[in-house]
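Hi support team,

I submitted a single chain yesterday and got back a structure, but I'm not sure I'm reading the token output correctly. Could someone confirm the output below corresponds to the sequence I sent? I've pasted both exactly as they appear in my results page.

Thanks,
R.
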Amino acid sequence: MKEKVAKKKWFESIKMPHTYVILTGILIVMTLLTHIIPAGQYQRIEDPVSGKMIVVPGSFEFIDVDAPGFFDMFLALQRGYVDAADIMFLIVFAYGFVYVLTKNGTMDAALGTMVRSMGKKVQLLIPVTMLVLGILSSTMGIFEEVYGLFPIFVGIALALGYDIVVGGAIVYLGVAVGYASATLNPYSIGVAQDIAGVPMFSGIGLRVIVLIVFEAAAIFYVMHYAKKVKEDPTKSVMYGIDCDFVQRKSMEELNSIKMTGRQKLCLALFIITIFALLYGTTQLEWYINEIAAMFLMMMIFAGIISGYSTTEICKTFIESTKSMVSSMLIVGFTRGILLIMKDGMISDTIVYYLVTALDGTSKYITAYGMWFLQSIIKFFITGSSSQATITMPIMAPTAELTGLSKQIAVLAYQFGNGYAEIFWPTSCALGCGLM
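Hi R., thanks for writing in. Yes, this is the structure output for that exact sequence:
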């Protein structure tokens, strides 16, 4: 009896292109669009209340600008790497700190302690972590500050029998859904409501419900995928792909690891770093530069506590950068795409065309249309505050003219800005998550 040879379905033979191939395609498309979409801009004035530059409704005008050429694409990439240097080095320094804690065994010992203390309920780490990150992001606007947690939770996920997607999703979806379901976030809701002219942080009841529902959905999704992968590793979307940068330990190995005195001090340093991060960003107005400097300082302190010599600390830092070069360069690449659009002056034109499409529509179509347009605009304008200052002066009056509340315009911005952040490749958070 002849054995039947299983035939692969056509879609099973399709391989996902390399990240840089995808980004290159986007870069080429954006460059071509600068030759198709006419350049234009809105006039902007300073808002006396917030001090931010906001768009003057009805002030859009087309302008003459030389569209970027073939060589300009490569120039934009170089400029993108320079422009995104702060975030790129934040990633390097954050991972350097984590790498020291991993190399000296602190992370494995801490994981072993956690596994023993939680017993069979260790999977609860997923919902607890995602909920904490979601609340911090929803209230205080924490987002970029968690980039350094990616390698930590990837290692934790692998140790628990999951894959690297679970580790990344714990951090990424936890914080991104919280940011999109903002309740008191001053960088999104605060700016949008201020420009729209509605009471600051009004409508919080609905947004709390939104946060609970969507964060619960994200947690359920991650836990469902994690369970599926643990039961059958071949179900992982990363099955068969090597992850050299992550040191793997089995559950049995973790259970047997006891924490030394030096490791206890390093764990205390890690906890102090987290609290310093929260205090600095909420009370001292820290951002990328200060956070990167803190991670660099803590990396050196961790090396000293570990008993490393100055030479060993330097060599360990160099070791950590080797596995992060490809990942950090993604951030500069995506910034180059944004610079191409900026050079071609097409971002404002796209906003103008999209908003014009809402003229004469019913209030229901307008409401969903504003949400859809904000999602599209997010691809071209990545900053939350920047998107609010450009779109809210236009969207808020549009909502009123069609019989909608300005709060609907704010909500459309919140959902369009926040949830699109999870998917668009121009999002810096997604670029960092691709590591």
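A quick pointer for reading it: The longest strand covers residues 44-46. Let us know if anything else looks off.

Best,
Support desk
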